Amino acid sequence: MLRILHYIQCILVLLLSIMIPGCNSEDIPIEDEVTPQIIFLFSPGGLGDMSYNDCILEGVQQFKKQNPVIDIYIYSPNSLEEAERIFSDWLIRPESNIPVLFTLASSDYEPMAEKYLKEHSLTANKSILLFESRKRYADEKIHTFQISMFGASYLAGVVAWHCAAGKKSLVLLANDSDGPIAVAKDGFIAGYGSDCDIQYLADDWTGYVSAALAYRNMSTWSLDYGYIFPVAGGSNAGIYRYSREFDDAPFLAGMDIDQSSLSTKITGSVIKRIDVVICHYLTEWVQTGVMPDSQLYGLADGYSDWLLAPLYGADFNEIVENSRRQAIAMEKAYYENNEI
């Protein structure tokens, strides 16, 4: 199944590369024609994660099908240094009559944006969309949004408490510096109603691309924990692989998209409908030239949710639905009490 999914992802990326020109920053043409351009900078090594980044890619494809005349350029850098070069090269380009939207498709890029926007102002034809950020910028051409995982993770925690069978649960995070995944941790622990162990795969973005490390650690984690809540992007693939190969694997949560097909141990998935959000934002920009002010979306808005796996629906659907109103209230209170 994983091999089939991998092939599908490769085909999607290949098709998109045919539909959408560009691989290097030098390839972005400066034209006289007034055709809007959208530039996507994915997180380092993110594409192909069968998770958040691939869901963004689906949203880009949907938008491209609806707007075939718009020029879209895709970058999947190998490091933050390469990402900085691409972004800074774009910032210093001279003003033109071509509207350009630069999309920073990762919360990892907020410090980078801060750094370079202090040094360079946006020309009149340029706009920026920064994912998973609640920062508000004075420049009205810089837009941000965040999809909260608190409420959906709260519901995951409720289910995990019933599955752990008296053993402790582990919250596994990619790193200790990414704000949105820390929100997921807080939501899960609130729903679980008890302390959980917390571990990190790395201290930087590489925690999202460490599937082999996660796989190796599973032999130990399986002895110690009854449930693992992994918020680590592509690294989760190592956890799911172990759970397919060994019967001692604990119960698990899927992340970002419905991943219930990857393992019978996945009780449900925290999903983020980032494909729907990005298609909406891009359409708004093309049609009006503007986008919404800084927005926070969550469980109440339908852009995040906890989706039970089919194998566990009969056991936990009533429990989840009875907890939904509380999860929404807790998510609202969380942001009211934490200025983040």
List the helices and strands and how they pair.
Layout: H1 2-19, E1 37-42, H2 52-66, E2 71-75, H3 80-91, E3 100-105, H4 110-119, E4 126-130, E5 142-147, H5 150-163, E6 168-173, H6 179-192, E7 197-200, H7 211-224, E8 225-231, H8 236-245, E9 251-256, E10 266-272, H9 274-288, E11 295-297, E12 304-308, H10 313-337
Helix pairs in contact: 1-2, 2-9, 3-4, 5-6, 5-10, 7-8
Can you describe this structure?
By secondary structure, the protein is of the alpha/beta class. The chain is 43% helix and 19% strand. It has a 6-stranded parallel sheet, with helices on both faces. A 6-stranded mixed sheet has the order 7-6-8-9-10-12, with helices on both faces. Helix 4 links the parallel strand 3 and strand 4. Helix 1 runs parallel beside helix 2 and helix 5 packs across helix 6.
Specify the helix fraction band. Answer: 40-55%
Strand order of the largest sheet: 2-1-3-4-5-11
Distance between the termini: 39 Å
SSE run: HEHEHEHEEHEHEHEHEEHEEH
Mean pLDDT: 90
Radius of gyration: 20 Å
Count of beta strands: 12
Q: What oligomeric state do the depicted chains represent?
A: single chain
Question: What's this, in brief?
Answer:
The chain has 340 residues and is an alpha/beta fold. It is built from ten helices and twelve strands.
Task: Name some characteristics of this structure.
10 helices; alpha/beta; 43% helix; 340 residues
